[in-house]
Amino acid sequence: MKIRSLRRAAARLLLLAAAFGLPAAHGQGALLSALPGMPKASAPTAASATAPTADDGRLERLNKQLEEARSLGAGMAADGVAVPPGITDEEVGHATRRLAQWSLSIDRELRAIAGINEARADRSEAIAADAAWTGFAEKPPYSILRADELAQQSDTLSRRIEAAETTRSLNARELERLQQDLLRANQSLRSAEERARADTADAALQWRARATRWHQQAVDATAAAIARDGELAAARSEADKARLALVERQRQAVKARVAFTQADLQRVRQEQQARQARIEKAAAAAQALADQKSRELAAATRALQALRTAEPAPIPARLEAAEAQLQALAAATDTARRETEILTLLGGLAASTADVWQLRFDALNAPGAERRREATAALRDMIRPLGVWRRYASGQLEVIHEEQGTLALAQEQLAASSEVQRFGAARAEALSRRALVTQQLLDEIDRDERMLKRWLTEFEVDQAERSWQDRAAAVWVQAAAVGRAIWRFELFAVEDTIDIQGQKVTTTRGVTVGKSIGALLVFLIGCLIAARLARRLERTLIGRFAVDAMQARTIRRWLLWAVGLMLLVLTLNLAQIPLTVFAFLGGALAIGVGFGTQTIIKNLISGLILLMERQVRVGDSIEVDGFTGTVSEINLRSSTIKGFDGIDAILPNSALLENRVTNWTMSDQRVRRVVRVGVAYGSPLRQVADLIRGCAERHGQVLKQPEPQVQLEDFGDNALIFALFIWIDIRGNASGPLIMSDLRFMIDSALAGAGISIAYPQRDIHLDTTTPLQVEISRRPATAASTPAAPPPENGGVTV
User: Fold this and answer.
1) Measured between alpha carbons, how far is 103 from 18 in angstroms, rounded to an integer?
2) Is the pLDDT of residue 664 over 50?
3) Is this prediction's pTM over 0.70?
4) What does the pLDDT look like over 731-744, one tens digit per residue?
5) Residue 664: what are its φ and ψ, rounded to 5°?
6) pLDDT (tens digit per residue) in 124-143
7) Which of 367, 488, 639, 787 is least surrounded by CB atoms within 10 angstroms?
8) 171 neighbors 228 (Cβ within 8 angstroms)
9) CA 489, CA 478: separation in Å to the nearest integer?
10) Residue of 391, 409, 279, 296 lying closest to 345 (CA atoms)
11) Which residues pair with 641 in a beta bridge?
């Protein structure tokens, strides 16, 4: 019963509001229309809606229906109203709400009709003003402030036209839904009237028939009001379009001849300073109010604590009122603090406005393209923080609306005393105030964001209308800015620890693209200079110090590698790139790289050892791994050996250290060679030796010291073996194989001239004479092909 009473009370309050013509707030429209900077919605009364129009009959009927609905509502809301037996409280509440809906819908339609008439008049005035306008009184160039004013008007009118079109679309959808409700309401009305006519004595049926008619009239009035709202939106849209046409004409007249002068900039600064002063004054007042509410909240908290601990226990209603007062003061304190914060933020925005306008002035009037680009980039960067603040303000506004809804629901569901209701109303007022200032912040942020975006668009148009020289300069500046951004792009950062008075200080260094490219260029240029100096050094070593060409080339290569390593370290130091940047090669990667490069490192170290020990040098004749030749190059990783047959062999340096190497010219360039020759048994040995020695002495490339030696080396199976030992100098073009070939020709000629034959292989045949030998004499056949050969005699016989 208590809930039913509350429902009936709420319905009666609603009826009283409808009966006295109080406007109803739908959603957030009533709140937003009261905010600073928002357009004020016209609120014509029912009497104003009765102005003469083309639809006077409709207005008269609506006014009569409004009086009827208000009178019925007032009667339903009066205490002690007679309700027939059998009617429940729920039915009474439903009928009360329908009467209120009927009354409010009629009033809404009347207001819409008045608004339509007003919008049509405004449209006519706008069309007349557009036709009568011939230009501004002032002479061009026009102030940029006038252009801004026209742009803001155009933006506002465009958004209002868009909102009106959205309203029309929503009203059309709502009408489609109400058509079904109206059909059901008409069907219910017919059924109720039929039952009432069937039993005229039943007062409850008669009352339900009237309540059903009220329902049908409320739905019909709601549909008519929504239809009128659509017409009102269309009329206002047409009026705004007419105003927009005039504004666009004025913008086109101003657009081509607008100027932003120092006087305009000074005027803006003065206005912003005055606005900032007003905001600061309001912020100070809000701070004072917050301090006052904080003191009142602290006092109320102490009073509530004392009341809870008082003996005897206080009356529950008093305790409830104290808690409601505490909540109201908490909401008021929070609102005052939020208002202070928002006003402080608005003051900061107002303070930065002068800088923003200065950037705009520079973007349009600065003589240099670089300054214009910097100003434009700075304005573009300001849009992102505004988006963050807009999301913050929108979130805060949603939270406030949720608190308002929760508070309104609590106020409806709880039966509270008048004092508790008063504190609840104070709390609701504080929430409304908080929503008001938050909405003001959101409006300011949206306005600034739209203004910045419009300015950026103007900059693009202004740039497109400049001369080709200015456009080319702007493109060059933009390209240079992109290049600088790439040049300064940080690839990665490294930490460097230094010791300052015994304390470890860690600093961070960034490795940028510019540092990397600069270091690479310095390294390459240094390498080119070092290569040229090394080649000059090589020529000096060969020409002045008589160093072998191959040896000088090896020195040049090793010197280049050493200089390259020093250049690498020096370049990194000059570019302020610490060596710790290569620390990422540590760990598993370093182990993998170590295993992969161990052979290369081994050969590098082997090359260094060969260079220091000089046991194998360029020009030496060596034999390694069965390959014989002359060392032509010793590089860092490998060495090149040119064989006597002209084939080059590339051997890793480690092979010259780990394998057995025969160096024929390590300590001396003279090489001993041996020429062996066999003569027949019975030859004069001394004469043979003298002839062989004489051949060696006559050869021009055989050294006289040590002198040639001839030795009887062995009694061979078929010949007496003589060995000629000679020494030759392999420097220059001396070839050991060619000299030995010449000596063999000379020895053969000398021995042949002396009648001494060079032996050839001989074999002795021994016969077994322990048994008689069989001797046969046979005739050789005429042809070998026709007669088969005789078989060999048995027992070792001889066939003759």
Assistant:
1) 6
2) yes
3) no
4) 656 677 888 898 89
5) -75, -25
6) 999 999 999 988 888 888 88
7) 367
8) no
9) 16
10) 279
11) 631, 649
